Amino acid sequence: MKTAVLYAILLILFGGLLYIVTDLPFGQPCKADMDEYFIRNSQTQTGANNVVTSVVFDFRGFDTLGEATVLFTAVLGVGMMFRKLHEGEEYEND
Amino acid sequence: MKMTKIVRTTADVFYPFCLAFGLYVVMHGHLTPGGGFQGGAVMATGAALLIVARSYEDITGRLRKGVLKVCEATGLMLFLLAGLSGLLKGLPFMANWLTQTGGWVGKVMEFGPNGGELATGGLIPLLNVGVGIEVLGGLSIILLYMISGTKEKKP
Asked: What is the mean pLDDT of residues B36-44?
């Protein structure tokens, strides 16, 4: 009984969301100010031909620093997880 | 697990090409699609190829854990130092102060379609190289840790 009510609520929610989505115009709003700005100014301001790279490494460089830190932390976690399995090996950083 | 001689030879032949193509993707990150993350992943694919084709004892001479660890830390440090170098000029963190200055990475770029120059972008190529070195070291050392954790014996 409980699960049937739960499924009914989920179905109603999902249907309502689908109904809202059908009313939305597709691809609107199609133009914001930022994309126009990046396309017009990325070459002259950063000197990079690739607009994506100029956004990732220059306009949003702090975000890329975070991504690099995420990778570093992931490697740290894998190294920690496999530390126990290296007991027979000689330590390489001596 | 023992791979055949064909697989091992193919991996040996393709390994330097993987490294060269990854380096190309990293160095041209500000001109063509790609960049530090993608190029580093391509270079780590070469390491994965060697690991798949050979046993762990065979590849420890070519892929050293110590070197790869240093690669990873150096890449992140290079990124951080390149970001901090703007502070010396009185600019904010991660400011691209080398671009459009006419220096060795600052050739002046005009708006519009053009063939592109390698010596443009200011700080962007340096950051690309830093991220590329870090991704190469990080992904390779994850693979090396995992294969060495399985304690696979040489066939």
From this structure: 94
B122 located within any domain: yes
Residue B155 lies in a domain: no
* ipTM associated with this complex: 0.85
Annotate B50-85 with b (16+ C-beta within 10 A) or e (fewer): bbebbbbeebeeebebeebbebbbebbebbbebbeb
Report CB contact under 8 Å: B124, A57. Answer: yes
Q: How many domains does chain B have?
A: 1
Q: Do B75 and A68 touch (CB under 8 A)?
A: yes
Look-up of token digits 């995992």 = B146
**Distance (Å, whole) CA B61 – CA B56:** 10
Sites in chain A below the pLDDT cut of 50: 91-94
Q: How far is B71 from chain A (nearest CA, A)?
A: 11
Q: What is the DSSP letter of A90?
A: P
pLDDT score recorded for residue A89? 61
Amino acid at B12: D
Q: For residue B62, what is the DSSP state?
A: T
Structure tokens at A70: 């995420």
Q: What is the DSSP letter of B48?
A: H
The full set of domain ranges for chain A reads 30-82
Distances (CA, A) of B66 to A40, A76, B41, B72, B139: 45, 14, 19, 10, 14
**Chain A residues close to B142, C-beta within 8 Å:** 74-75, 78
User: B154 lies in a domain?
Assistant: no
